[in-house]
Amino acid sequence: MKSKNKSKMMKNNFYSVLMMVILMISCTDTNTINLKMTDINGLKEKALVFSNGQKVGEIADISFVNGKYLNVLLELEKDFKIPVGSEVSLISTDIMGTRAISIELSENNIYYNSLDTLLCVDKSTTKLDTIIMKIDSAIEEILDSVPTKLIKKP
Fold first, then answer.
1. Helix, strand, coil % (nearest 5) of the chain?
2. pLDDT tens digit string along 47-63?
3. Domain range summary for the chain, segments of one domain joined by +
4. pTM (2 decimals)?
C-alpha cells in the first residue's frame, strides 16, 4: 500500500514538474535558434541580430562543441520566423569591427522551428577580401601607368 502511494506521489510530482516546464517554454517571448560556426571572429554575447536592417534579436550564448565548432544561441523575437533557405551571416556593423548576425530571408513558405540549427557564413571576411582585391588591382593599374624610368630601384 505504501509503495503504491509513493509511486502515485512520484508520478504526480513528475507531471507537475513537466507542466511547469511546458508552461515556462510556452510563456517565453523569444524564438531560439542555434547557429553552427567554425569561427566567431569577435562576435560576443548580447551582440545584435538583424534582418532587413531591423533588430530581430540578440546572441544569448556562445559555446564550444566537441572542440570542433562553436554553437551560437540566438534569441529572436517570438513572431520572427526564418524561412528555410535563408542565409545567416556574420557581419561587421561599423568601422571598429563590431560584429553582428544578419539574416537574409528566403521566399520559402516553410519555416525553421525553435531550437533548429543553421550554418552561418562569415561575410565580413568575404567583403574584406573583395576590397583587398580591388585595392590590389588599382595599385597594379597605377604602377603599370607610371613609366618605369620614374620608378627608383633599391
1. 35, 35, 30
2. 999 999 999 999 999 99
3. 29-143
4. 0.62
